[in-house]
Specification:
single chain, globular, 46% helix, seven-stranded parallel sheet, 8 helices
């Protein structure tokens, strides 16, 4: 690196959806880049294994089990971050859930509610508790929210998911505008098809979508979770100090084509 420093040296970051996929990749990468990471997800055993793995490589990590759709769980995670590491500097709000292959009029209300609760209310809950903690540090901070190419266009995912990811971009812009002068940058990732556990579940249910998801990328492939995590790490770092309110495409060119 040109400045001889790791990208996230001395920073504390809360990562949601950290038990697999992009979240787990981010946990490993952020720790390797010098951050102390607090990991939030529902699966305790997965989180425990990841915390141990990071510790064995010389990183600092802790965990809270919980669901971002439940405000109290997010509140506990933010409080634990401050208690364990002294402050919260940044957050990567990555938790998500999706289905595909079911038309809007056949989508069960319970499925709609879960998609909105995780993908939209989850980000809302996180912002409401993370931003005050970041402001309390008295120094600049950053939040990165995971949106999707579904935040720009219909992709074949559930209509509820498309709606939720559009809304994440709106929340991101509103929060960036409200807190920019107070030193908190808020950005979103427009993520393309990525080889995650969630993606494999979607494709298992609707195998025909794989060809579409690959072909719509100009690179004709899906991303590895670490490729998405790299973009999130940069946005959480001071290297992105003049970037806020952005919807950064990390989609293999899907939205460019």
């Amino acid at each position: 690196m040109s400045d001889g420093q790791r990208m996230l040296d001395g920073r504390t970051v809360l990562i949601t959806g950290a038990s697999s996929g992009i979240g787990a990749a981010a946990a490993r990468l952020f720790a390797a880049e010098g951050a102390s990471v607090m990991l939030l997800a529902r699966r305790k055993e997965r989180l425990s294994d990841l915390v141990e793995e990071i510790a064995l490589t010389g990183g600092r990590a802790a965990m809270v089990t919980g669901d971002v759709a439940k405000e109290r769980d997010v509140e506990r995670a933010v409080a634990a971050t401050v208690e364990d590491f002294g402050r919260l500097d940044a957050a990567f709000n990555n938790a998500g859930w999706a289905v595909a292959g079911v038309p809007l009029h056949e989508t069960d209300n319970a499925v709609f509610d879960r998609i909105i609760d995780v993908n939209l209310r989850g980000v809302w809950n996180c912002l409401r508790h993370q931003i005050p903690a970041i402001l309390a540090t008295g120094r600049d901070g950053a939040v990165v929210n995971t949106s999707s190419v579904a935040g720009h266009q219909a992709t074949g995912a559930s209509a509820a998911y498309v709606a939720a990811k559009h809304a994440v971009l709106g929340l991101t812009k509103a929060a960036a505008a409200e807190y920019g002068e107070r030193g908190v940058r808020v950005n979103a990732l427009v993520v393309g098809s990525t080889r995650t556990e969630l993606m494999e579940e979607v494709l298992e249910g609707t195998p025909a979508l794989e060809k579409s998801f690959v072909e719509r990328s100009v690179q004709k492939r899906m991303a590895h979770p670490t490729e998405i995590a790299q973009a999130a790490a940069w946005l959480c770092s001071n290297r992105a100090s003049f970037v806020t309110g952005a919807a950064m495409q990390v989609d293999g060119g899907w939205t460019a084509a």
